[in-house]
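BUG: 3D viewer hangs when loading the predicted structure for this chain

Environment: internal workstation, default settings.
Expected: structure renders.
Actual: progress bar stalls at 90%.

Input used:
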Amino acid sequence: MEKFRPRLVQAAAQLSVDLTVAQQDLLLEYLALFARWNKAYNLSAVRDPAEMLERHIIDSLSVVNLCGGDDEPLLDVGSGGGLPGIPLAIVHPARSVSLLDSNGKKTRFLFQVATSLPLPNVAVFNERVEAHRPQQPYAAIVSRAFATIADMVDGSEHLLAPGGRFYAMKGKLPEDELSALAKGIKVERVHPLSVPGCDADRHLIVLSRAEDRGGQA
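Structure tokens produced before the viewer hung:
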């Protein structure tokens, strides 16, 4: 995977993400594990490691500075192969990052990543989101592959701390999904993402509870 280092460094710089050499190493090790396990575990429809770097890791790096503070515990809900949670945990090693997925094969892969890299700030949970009951709620909940924003919010709202934020990674701006949100959920901000090497539309949508914002629209 060493041949992918120049591209990783270039893309991170374009995204204003300052990667140490150690963080580059971890991301490339993660890419190698992803490519190896994908053959048997079907983590992604993408089979080419070069394309995995572009469509998964670099795409995830586009939001690492937009998903709350380093001291805010974060949940990656429906984490799948660990995107964007693993890149977030690598770039912000002091941040507590939980990866939640109901698929046993995928969480076995996530356990392997967390232990072999290793990533001591990562916790992995093989549960349905509705059944997850952490000791403390999360200040930030992120998703990259959840069905709809409403599904994400409805399923995981019980996990969000007071004043917390949802961060939904999407392609084209999903106007229909936003209009379907419950009245108690407000769109705080929409970040258009410029992902190096990607011509498709990408957005990060930040949401919060209306009562957490003093009832303001």
